[in-house]
Design goal:
alpha+beta, single chain, 2 helices, five-stranded mixed β-barrel
């Protein structure tokens, strides 16, 4: 009984120390928030819509590609630009008020489900080992 309990505790401890990436939860680093102007809007009927935005960082104007849709020509939006900024070329940016993936509120739920799974596995091993094995009965002799 002690070995399954210790194994379960070890799995939960390692999962906690591994961080949110283990449970499929990643914190996106969107970079520095900047105001941008939409220069080429995209329609939302395309599943891979990409808009072109213009923004200024360090006194220099840059063009960026924003994976999104539904903004109007000349609309001001908040974006996150990568750090460090590339010297030239088009930069891929993300919307500043969104993030890809799950929220941090799901990590405790994932860890609780992992604890439950460890408990269930430990109880299965305990019950499997505690049930005595019954010998198979001898086949009855045939009378001829």
């Amino acid at each position: 009984m002690a070995i399954p309990v210790a194994a379960g505790v070890l799995v939960v401890l390692l999962a906690w120390l591994a961080g949110p990436g283990l449970l499929g939860i990643a914190n996106d680093d969107l970079g520095a928030p900047v105001q941008a102007e939409v220069t080429k809007p995209a329609s939302c009927d395309n599943p891979n819509a990409v808009e072109t935005v213009r923004f200024t960082v360090g006194g220099k104007t840059h063009e960026g590609r924003l994976n999104g849709c539904g903004h109007g020509q000349g609309e001001r939006i908040g974006i996150g630009v990568p750090e460090p900024m590339p010297a030239d070329g088009t930069v891929t940016v993300g919307a500043a008020d969104t993030s890809t993936g799950s929220s941090d509120a799901r990590r405790p739920l994932g860890l609780a489900l992992l604890v439950f799974a460890c408990f269930s596995g430990g109880m299965f091993v305990y019950l499997w080992l505690s049930v005595p094995l019954r010998p198979k009965p001898e086949p009855a002799a045939k009378v001829s």
